[in-house]
Amino acid sequence: MVRTFLRLTLSACLLLTAQLSTPAQQTRMPQLKFTDRTLANGMRVLTVPDSSSPTVAIQVWYHVGSKDDPPNRSGFAHLFEHIMFKSTKNMKSEMMDRLTEDVGGFNNAFTNDDVTVYFEVVPANYLETLIWAEADRLSGLNVDDANFKSERDVVKEEFRQSVLAPPYGMAFYLLQAKSFVEHPYKRPTIGSIEDLDAASLKDVQEFHSTYYRPDNATLVVVGDFDPKQLDTWIDKYLAPIAKPSKPLPRVTVKEPPRKSETRLTEYGRNDLPAVAFTYLTSKLSDADTDALQVAEAILSAGESSRLYNSLVYTQQMAAEVIGDSGPLEDAGLFIVGAILSEGKKPEDAEKALLAEIKKLQDEPVPAAELEKAKNQLITNQLRERETSNGKALALGEAAVLLGDPARVNTDLARLQAVTAADVQRVMKTYFTDANRFVLYYLPEASKSKKEGQ
Amino acid sequence: MMRKLLFSAALSALCVLCGNAQTPQATPPPPAPPRSGKFPTPVEQTLPNGLRVIVIERHETPLITAQLLIKNGGEVDPSELAGLADMTADLLTKGTQSRDATKIAQEIESLGGSLEAGARWDSSYATVSVMSSKIQQAMEILADVVRHPTFKSEEVERLRQQNLDSFTLALGDPGSIARFVAARVVFGDSPYGHPVSGTAESLTRISATDIAKMHSRYYRPDNAILVIGGDINGKDGQALATKYFGDWQKPTTPLPAISAAMGAAAAPKTGRVVVIDKPDAGQAAVYLARTGINRKDPDYFRGIVSNSVLSGYSGRLNQEIRIKRGLSYGAGSSLDTRRDVGPFLASAQTKNESGAIVADLLLGEIGRLSSAPPADVELTPRKAVLIGGFSRNLETVGGLVGQVSSLALYGMGLDEINRYINNVQSINTADIQKFAGTRLDAKTASIIIVGNAKAFLPELQKKYPNVEVIPVTELDLNTALLRKKKETAD
Hints:
The complex is a heterodimer.
Chain A lengths: L8 H8 L18 E4 L5 E6 L5 E8 L13 H8 L11 H5 L6 E6 L4 E8 L3 H13 L5 H20 L4 H9 L15 H6 L2 H11 L5 E7 L3 H11 L24 E7 L5 E8 L6 H13 L5 H9 L3 E7 L7 E9 L5 H17 L4 H18 L3 H13 L6 H10 L3 H11 L5 E8 H9 L1
Helix pairs in contact in A: 4-9, 10-13, 10-16, 11-12, 12-16
Chain B lengths: L1 H16 L25 E4 L5 E6 L5 E8 L13 H8 L9 H10 L3 E6 L4 E8 L3 H13 L5 H18 L3 H14 L12 H6 L2 H11 L5 E7 L3 H12 L27 E5 L6 E8 L8 H11 L5 H8 L7 E5 L7 E8 L4 H17 L4 H18 L3 H13 L10 H6 L3 H11 L6 E6 L5 H7 L4 E4 L19
Parallel strand pairs in B: 2-6, 7-11, 7-12
Antiparallel strand pairs in B: 1-2, 3-5, 3-6, 4-5, 8-10, 8-11, 9-10
Helix pairs in contact in B: 1-13, 2-8, 4-9, 10-13, 10-16, 11-12, 12-16
């Protein structure tokens, strides 16, 4: 749906972790020839002219995410993202939709733990209009209480739809909430109903003035435009926005290393039990991220992956398996798990998952399997870059989260360089007993049965 | 040309919103003259064995998608074997005469590619997507799984259990329950009424013999279409098709006749109000359902534009339910056109307490489509949404192949992709009013709510004393009655 909060914050990161790209052996990986410019007010501007379709993708990345939620306001960064579509200095509520949807384009935005990203794709001749509109909502909001409350209700419905209604929504929520002790990553992006209810218009103004400033923003434009003309529009609309003198707050809390395994059993409205582990890993910009990504593909990408092959196909104990290297800016959270098949025991699934992890630690991955994982990752990246919006996402991620837009073109080489020994090493480093959190998410019905006995 | 129309519409919309602008920067700058784009033209031929081959070029990204389409799917499932077509298609990739399931997955994934198979309404498919440098190997695997599957009993059992688990998972989600129930309510016991993936009971009945029969009956070159799209030229695509499918023999038996009426005839003439009571539901799924139109209906474009007025972010349903009232994360509708009349659905998920009011709002908006049809100022942007979405869909190889496959399946001209924009633009206010009044009458629509009934039932009953309340534990998707027969007391 429109204005999605990417439910599984971890999968949001998965989408954004696309790492790119020098030509693979037989495949030409199109390079993104971008220009990189920083305005005097600190705003970074990345542009890629591409006339393959008469459209243009505009994105503004704000380096603020749910880890920056104010105290007792979990879910606020995401609620704020919704509010950015309400009244601004010169736009009425939903005018962004008039400027995009009504002319055959679209807009959306997402918030994850680390960033908030606004994007539009429009017919190319509307580019100047959208640069104006993005400048306008960066300059200031002008939201009234009725609009604020109605949008807050929408976000509460989003909470219900993503956490309460789906059978495993709460399981994913708990996986993140219980995996961190100190770091604000312990607050899932969607927040809680109580904290959303406590949020006010005053919080909105404060959050805007604290984080929505040009030196915390990156504009990415990919599509059919004349670079000189685009520069004049940027100079006209974005360059005049002043940079505040107060410093930008940054999260400095470090999640302490785990000292011993922790376990949690929870009951929900699911009919099939689920078992999942999380392991704390390196932060996104760390060199180990590439090997962890390859490990993820080996474990869980496709039906030839180890978890699928072992738990779903051969042992027939799981209906679904999960493997997600969950890279985050400050600390990665690798999830491994399974939804069990009818009548199977969570204890057995736990053993089977651990056995697959141990195999990856004990023996180097065969060359063909390593090659397969890399081919899968490369093809995924090609697919993501089919559209101008996908290209802009890859470029924005490299610039904002990896700190270097050029990595959009060089990360494929890093991925290609991952060896079997690298995979074995990261599996041994991070997948230790002491670094494991275990969640059993069992059907409510099984609880009453136990109690009845 | 089309963007000129959009251009003027956008200007008038902006004037409404920004009438009192003062500084030069207080109003958005107007758009520049439009830039134009063009869709690729598919080329096709029919092989001597009857296989229709369509190639469509798009070279921006080095990817190719090839889809082999069988012109039958879930609609030919015998009524007691719901899910047969889907299991048959799924099992294609689970073993052939020369490869077992593990080898198929390993080979295709080693290429970095994906291979998917399944059944929908009116068709079954096997689709490969790979980097263009790997297309030869991928096509060889595609042909093997379509032509030489073995349907080993061990694989049948494995898939049966997986499908049973998936069915259990679906029954934990109010939205998927509501969609299952809506199909039964609209189509009764006729073919489009069952879940295409089957029910717990039907999945248990399907045998390896049923599956092999389904395959030999429908999987034949003269009942198939091969669409290859992406970074490949027409000549190479046709050569690939001939190489891997040219010697696929056409059986001497005649093609099975396709029944003309799948659902429309059997559809109930009056609406039902059905509540599935799921006391632990975290939210209520509210659906309004009725028959829509078939794909070849002369009203097709009137239908999809009417739906666009209702659906999408700024469509009327989301305007009323989300934007004005904050009652849902999103409301929308769909007009699913098939070989025979498909369903029209309007829906939203909301907190349990708001179930009845959301049902009212959905019904009200469907009615308002004919009593207050959209004037140009509203209609033009909704047409732009359709056109924009269509154009963006054709920007990806997967989207391009999907569009062309759908046109081919229903016997539409492939050049329709280049007529689509004009067809949408030609629809006017009177067209919408007529379509809504004659084809989407809200009075014969059904209401389905899946949620914690206690929270919304009293209000719903005030308006609909005949509401049927079925506890989720008694729900039976095998029959239009939707309720398990009372077992004799033990």
